[in-house]
Design brief:
Largest sheet: 7 strands, mixed
Helix content: 25-40%
Distance between the termini: 64 Å
CATH topology of the largest domain: Nucleotidyltransferase, domain 5
Radius of gyration: 23 Å
Length: 508
């Protein structure tokens, strides 16, 4: 009898169900899309019922497409969007729409929490500054603005853990997702009594947490009838989306770093010890690997910068792609390759939507610096690719400063499809850039964690070793020396321009 594993990804836009076999082969995938709401400026909310509806529909679809019997599924793993506040009453019913990770209403509450606890103490305990996207300031906002609802809270869950509750009837979480709440002692891997006391949040509201690959609950009879799964199937802790994504690309040992070049950019590294970047410029969370942590640097406009460039000045290339059936980004990167490394002294700052790491500045702006009459579209295109790569190197260098070296960088995301961009990354980082066979990311990682919890694999590392393979490699070339000369000039620009960015924001 074949053994299968189910990964569920409860994201902001859809719930994805991914079914794999024990060798890591993807058998079937299904996704159910849903909206989120912005009822006021800076607000971002979602009806938690969508998480359950999407879970039911996606599971039923993946079972139908695969033809796999429910009894052959050894375990279910969960991942999803982090930081969201699902506030439930004593009967487990949502009291209000879930306040999402990208909601920005809580700036005042972040300041208040930091004042109550102290910035250094917050960083020491939780591994991060208090950020607007995190869960704790959302709770304080409810206490201050919706006291009637706040007084009825009996349970607080993260989005994927609400789906777990619907699947199992149990209020449970796991350490990687809990790390993004500002209520968790990340070093000790447990809820922080000190943070809870500072916010007057009862411990009873919060779920018990396990390590990520632990089978902590089972599919209930009600959920079995709704989804088609077999009652009693183990449900494994899982992980926050970034931790699960890292498992899905094999970032489960110190010394291997991942770079995701999607709309945003993420530099991710496992740490065998709890490390905190002194200025809080990197996120520090519990990893989905038991007893391990991870550091993460996030830039807001990575491949998003290149998409902006396409939309702003790439109309000819868009037309050419439509006429020839080619990919517009292939055309633009071919043009970029015509310019030399360093773009003849042209630098691009990729702060088109503000920045997070290493500059937590929502007012930061994008810029081309060094323009001359020699520069054409090819130089501009290459400068965008180089500027994003320099921005990712910023997080890479912060990790190096904390003692996390790298023997290999695994790259994924839309930008990783470009051979030129992979070469630029290898040269800018001064490290081997490799691609792997997995493209399903977080859902695949959740499925692997399910396999560990169900006993299919001996450990998270074993799961990755059995299923993930390197498919390509790019070594640093002669341009690495060029970029080493340009990088300090790139780093010097933000401190020089930060004040002007703030002034421009007041004018526009």
């Amino acid at each position: 009898m074949a053994t299968y594993l189910l990964g569920l990804d409860v994201s902001t836009t859809a719930t994805k169900a991914l079914l794999i076999d024990a060798d890591g082969r993807v058998v079937a995938v299904a996704a159910t899309e849903y909206p989120f709401e912005t009822p006021r400026p800076l607000w971002s909310e979602q009806d938690a019922a969508l998480f359950w509806d999407g879970t039911v529909k996606s599971i039923r679809a993946v079972l139908a497409r695969s033809g796999v019997a429910a009894g052959d599924i050894a375990g279910v793993g969960l991942t999803g969007q982090m930081h969201g506040l699902c506030a439930l009453d004593a009967e487990g019913r949502p009291l209000r729409p879930c306040i999402l990770w990208n909601d920005q209403r809580t700036a005042d509450q972040c300041t208040e929490i930091t004042r109550r606890v102290g910035a250094e103490r917050v960083l020491q305990l939780t591994g991060n500054p208090v950020l607007t996207g995190f869960t704790a300031p959302k709770l304080l906002w409810m206490a201050q603005h919706e006291p009637g609802l706040y007084g009825r809270i009996a349970h607080v869950l993260l989005p994927k853990d609400y789906a777990r509750y619907c699947l199992t009837g149990e209020f449970l979480g796991e350490v990687s997702d809990a790390s993004g709440t500002s209520l968790f002692d990340v070093g000790a891997r447990r809820w922080s009594d000190e943070m809870l006391a500072a916010l007057d949040v009862p411990r009873a509201w919060l779920p018990e947490v396990t390590e990520s690959p632990v089978a902590s609950a089972r599919i209930s009879e009600n959920a079995a009838r709704a989804t088609g799964l077999l009652a009693g199937t183990p449900v494994i802790g899982g992980g926050g989306d970034q931790a699960a994504q890292a498992v899905g690309t094999g970032i489960v040992r110190e010394g291997v770093i991942s770079v995701t070049v999607g709309t945003s950019g993420v530099v991710f590294a496992q740490s065998d010890a709890y490390r905190v970047e002194p200025a809080g410029r990197l996120h520090a969370f519990c990893h989905a690997v038991p007893g391990r942590w991870h550091l993460m640097g996030v830039m807001l406009s990575a491949a998003g910068s290149f998409r902006w460039f396409r939309d702003a000045v790439g109309q000819h290339e868009v037309f050419l792609a439509q006429q020839t059936g080619r990919d517009v980004y292939d055309i633009l990167t071919m043009e970029a390759a015509e310019a030399p490394p360093g773009s003849e002294g042209l630098l691009f700052l990729p702060y088109l939507t503000g920045e997070r790491a290493p500059h937590p500045d929502p007012l930061a702006r994008g810029a081309f610096v060094g323009l001359t009459v020699r520069h054409g579209k090819a130089h501009l295109a290459r400068a965008v690719l180089e500027g994003v790569s320099f921005g990712l190197r910023d997080s890479f260098e912060l990790m190096r400063a904390l003692g996390i070296g790298s023997t290999q960088v695994r790259v994924s995301g839309g930008g990783a499809r470009s051979a030129l961009w992979r070469q630029i990354l290898a040269d800018v980082f001064g490290a081997e850039i490799v691609t792997v066979n997995v493209t399903e990311g977080a859902a695949f990682g959740a499925a692997l964690l399910a396999g560990v919890g169900a006993g299919v694999y001996g450990s998270v590392a074993d799961a990755c070793d059995r299923t993930i393979r390197i498919t390509g490699s790019t070594a640093p070339g002669p341009a690495a020396e060029v970029y080493d000369a340009y990088y300090p000039r790139y780093r010097a620009l933000y401190p020089l321009l930060a004040g002007e960015f703030a002034s421009l924001a007041r004018l526009a």
